[in-house]
């Protein structure tokens, strides 16, 4: 019987090298009403800020239901595993569809028949297996949260001054670490000692924000429980991890740090006026520098606390949060020198590192109803230009008025 798979030719080649053949695409879904989610989000907890546990649970249940239905379809195909598991949100008017999709694989006669699911595609799975990490299950951790009116009022008062807004920094740091702790707990529930290939996304959802971490709970025989009390975690790709292990390093923990800074009312007006002339804007230069240093200091301190040798793959992001606020996020993986982990192959095959090219292009992607939560995008303040234009015009008029007064 013909197989309909989402695996590319390169992925099929890599999986064949590890004893797996492609199976059919497997799908699971669950549709929920956004009306119920919005009604929960308008309660007292949303006013106070922080995690909205009811919404977290609603979203978690939707994702789990879709995932379990996908697994059941894989069982119906008598699959050994499911690769490339993806979780998507598709909005249908006032409803949201939780969609889980992946590609089934079948073990050949000599390959162990341990059932598994993984967020890794065929190429990433090859690299993971080659360093001895056996996939256990697709894992995720999420948290839905609100900035809150109470914290928002205090934060807005502090935006009049320049510097870090610790109330906002605390919310962002706390929620990120909640999601991380939950994906690690998911791995521990399934007796795994590692969570690999973690992808992090922040997504607006029903009037609140959801932070989501997706990865693969995995197990390595040489990671003893005595040495590692918690499962290791990594946001490196599995191919990156293969390269690091081949050079004598292993991942320890995903590290992240965030700082929310305010330019301040006076600084904002000054920098806006200066933006009309050429030259450096010292206020913005110093502000962004301080925010960057603070976020990096957070992950450096955590790396020292766990005895890491280095922090690699550090990625930095700056986001405009509105009201003169910017967020600076730093995320990377702490690694440590080791000789206990090795690679089976001396080199990765070319098929494992070739990037598959898209052969379909959607020119309406920005207006699409489909939202891929694995892209790592953080859509904040999209479509807000209509608010900024009158503010800019007002500041321009103020600048002209001040010039007339001085003349």
Automatic annotation (TrEMBL):
UniProt KW keywords = Membrane, Transmembrane, Transmembrane helix
Q: What Pfam families does the entry give?
A: YbjQ_1
Key word Transmembrane present in the record?
yes
Task: Specify the domain of life of the species encoding this protein.
Answer: Bacteria
What stretch or stretches form a coiled coil here? none
User: What residue ranges are annotated as transmembrane?
Assistant: 383-402
Family, per entry: Belongs to the UPF0145 family.
Please give the name of this protein: Heavy metal-binding domain-containing protein
